[in-house]
Amino acid sequence: MKVLLIEDSEALRRGIRVGLDHLGYTVDETGDGSEGLSMALTNQYDFIILDLMLPNVDGISLLKSIRKLGNQAKVIILSAKSQAEDRVNGLLSGADDYLTKPFSFDELQARLITMGRRGELNQQAKTINIADFVLDTSNKSLRVNGHFIDLTKNEFKIVEYLFNNPKQVLNPEQISEAVVGSFNHLSKNTIEAHLSSVRKKAKAVGAILPIKNKRGFGYFVDVQA
Fold it and tell me: Which of 90, 110, 166, 194 is a Cys-bridge partner for 221, taking CB atoms 3.0 to 4.6 Å apart?
C-alpha cells in the first residue's frame, strides 16, 4: 500500500512515517500543500493522510482539487479542528475519514484498515446487473435502459453495497458501516432519504429501483423486479 502523508508538523510527520514504515506501507511525505497537490496528481496512492492547515495550499482546497480531477485515493484528514461543522465540511469536500488531533497511532492504523476494507468492497465487481439496472463500479455510474442516473457519493455507495449483496436483507447498521465506516454513522432516516432520492431519480426515467424495505429488518434487492 502506498501512502502520501501531507502534514506541516515535522515531528508529527516523522512519527507517522516511522510507524507506517514499520507496518510495511510505502510512504511519500511533504509539509507543503502545493507540493502535496502536485504529488497527489502525478503519482498513484492508495491513501492520502492530509492535514488541513498547510502552507501555500490548504487541505480542503487540495482535497477539492484532486476530487474534481477524479483522484480516487482514500483520504483521511488529520486536524485539530474538532467541531462537528469542521468534520462535516471535510467529509463533504471528499474525505473518507476525519481524525482529530491529538490521536494515537493505533487509531490511525485502525482507520486505514477500515478504509482499506471499504476499498475491497468497491472492487468486488466492475459491473453489476440487477433487472434493467447496470451499476459500474469503475466509473461510479448507474444506468437503466440507456439512461444514466446521477447519484451523490453516498447514494452510489448505498446502492453498490445492496447490489453486491442481492440475496440478503441488510440492516441500517450494516449499510452505515459499509458506506462511512465504524467511526462515522448514517442514521436509518438518512439512509432512507438517500434511497428515496435514488427512487425518484429512477422514476424520472421510467424505472423502478429494485431496492425494497423489509419493515423492521432493513433493505434488500428484489431480483425479480
Answer: 166
Residue in 41, 32, 44, 26 with CA at minimum distance from that of residue 6 = 32
Give me 97's grid cell: 475519514
d(CA 138, CA 162): 17
Q: Band the pLDDT of 143: cuts 50, 70, 90.
A: very high
* Residue for grid cell 469503475: 138
Rounded Cα–Cα distance for residues 68 and 136 (Å):
19
Residue corresponding to grid cell 434487492: 221
Which residue type does 46 have? D
CB of 70 closer than 8 Å to CB of 78? no
- Tell me the C-alpha to C-alpha distance, in Å, between residue 123 and each of 4, 35, 135, 137: 21, 30, 12, 7
The single residue listed with the C-alpha cell 462535516 is: 88
- In this structure, what C-alpha cell is assigned to residue 116? 482499506
Q: Could you tell me the CA-to-CA distances from 44 to 3, 33, 41, 112 in Å, in that order?
A: 9, 17, 8, 17
Written as nine digits, the cell of 77 is 484528514
At residue 40, φ and ψ (nearest 5 deg) are -65, -30
Cross-strand partners of 211: 221
User: Is residue 214 within 8 Å of residue 182, measured between CB atoms?
Assistant: no
Spell out the residues 6+ positions from residue 47 whose beta carbon is closer than 8 angstroms to its own: 1, 2, 3, 4, 25, 73, 74, 75, 76, 112, 115, 116
Contact 112, 91 (CB under 8 A): no
pTM: 0.54
Closest CA to 199 of 170, 166, 162: 162
Q: Kindly state the helix (H) or strand (E) to which residue 211 belongs, with its residue range.
A: strand 211-214
